[in-house]
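Q: Could you write out the predicted structure for this multi-component system? I'm mainly interested in how the pieces pack against one another.
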Amino acid sequence: MASEYHSSGEYIKHHLQNLTYGQHVDGSWGFAHGAAEAKAMGFWAINVDSMLFSIGLGILFLFLFRLAARKATVGVPTGLQNFVEWVIEFIDNSVRGSFSHQNALVAPLALTVFMWVFLMNLMDLIPVDWLPYAATMAGVPHLKAVPSTDPNVTFGMSLSIFFLVLYYSVKMKGAGGFFSELAFQPFPKFLFPVNLLLEGVGLIAKPISLALRLFGNMYAGEMIFILIALMFGGSWILALFGGALQWAWAVFHILIITLQAFIFMTLTIVYLDMAHAEHH
Amino acid sequence: MNFNATLIGQSITFILFVWFCMKFVWPPIMNALETRKKQIADGLAAGDRGKHELELAAKKAADKLREAKAQAAEVIAQADKRAAQIIEEAKTTAKEEGDRQLAAAQANIAQEANRARESLRDQVAALAVAGAEKILRREVNAQTHADLLGQLKAEL
């Protein structure tokens, strides 16, 4: 399919472009064609593909789990309930291991983070050309099937978690307590501007690193899939080699997507635990 | 990296998903898990209790059996003793009864003999008188010798 593009650069750019809906420079509303147009739309534009896929996957997750929850019996669990209970016990153990306070929000939050991120990452295993090609057939110019390769998605989650961290920090320690935690350590009190700078950077780094880690891993993985897919445009030997590489990278990627979902969840729990803790 | 309103949309979606999960997914499943855990623990405890009770019952049964055996042995011993006693008593009673009956029979015999002797004496006297009468009828007057005959009769 790469042969349909004028250059491999164009192919890569096309695959990395979200389907952005917004107001064009000339004032009309519509989908952006290319990265420059999407950028020109400014902040008040929306990546339709990211939204649709992420919401769809989230609803899939909640639908399956809600189904199991409604039919949850105390007796011998079967099928779906077995799987759901396995996931929930895994999350519950993780939360018990890392979170040492009482908060009914944390475990469901961790479950949502894990399953949602996992499903969004899982889209990466669908061969890179299938969905964009189908979308092009249907007349949609761009399509990025993996929501977690869109920084808007990862930052959307990490910023929400960051606000939760701020909320619980203030709720648990009081505004003064939270401020003193930021200002009066690690150095003595009279150096509080230095402390504030250090701790402030540390605080801000949490959501940014959380989002960038997931985004970076998924983006890089997607990029490698795209580069491998470029081989299919070459000779049949190259295509065969590409097929083998794609298979190998996909197998390795199963590990990465699970690990990234787990890391995102664990860090969420740890950050919230730190927000609840009285002292570092 | 191109930030746009997707960021806000994602945050809202995320918050809604977490809310839904917290409200409708997590509690029922967790509830089922906890209840099952409790049921299993209860079942195991009940099993332990049952086993313990079985042990106790077996011990009690063994005690009862031993007690019963001891009682039975005692009863048998008592019965043996009683039997021997009864036999002894019966022997004594029989002996006494025998003695009594023997004495009564002897008394009876003596009485009968006495009576027979009395009647025999009367008969002999009458026979003697009759004999004497026959002898004397010819030569002796009965009235004359009545005194003599009376004396004779008394002597017999």
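A: Regarding packing and overall arrangement: Chain B has a mean pLDDT of 89.
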